[in-house]
Amino acid sequence: MTDAEWMRHAIRLAQRAEAQGEVPVGALLVLNERCIAEGWNQPIQSDDPTAHAEIVTLRKAGRALHNYRLIDTTLYVTLEPCVMCMGAIAHARVKRLVFGAYDPKRGAVCHALQLSDAPFLNHRVEWSGGVLEADCAELLSDFFRARRR
Hints:
alpha/beta; Cytidine Deaminase, domain 2; 5 helices; 40% helix; tRNA-specific adenosine-34 deaminase activity; hydrolase
């Protein structure tokens, strides 16, 4: 499957978050062209501030592979990860990150922080941003617009 096809799957996961009243962010982890874990934002529902889509997915993947090192995997997520999530992604040794919408205010890949290139991290994550960016951004802006009403 292509990056865009995997991102469409992540968008469907983000819609699950939205249906539960969560900020619509979805993520999935792929190894050898197979989805091994998926998740969506759940901090409100789970009373867990760390339950971002990426963290939920990484936890499930670690259990599925019986290893916290997620070597040779690709993480797809609908929004540029925050600092917490980027730290976890690097620590898990995810090989590649693909995200949809950029987050200029809180993004920790290439915006507010550039953790993908941080010299103090002992693992470099390859990344691509802007995959189905308009679709991912629209999902978020529609959600927040509806919340403001």
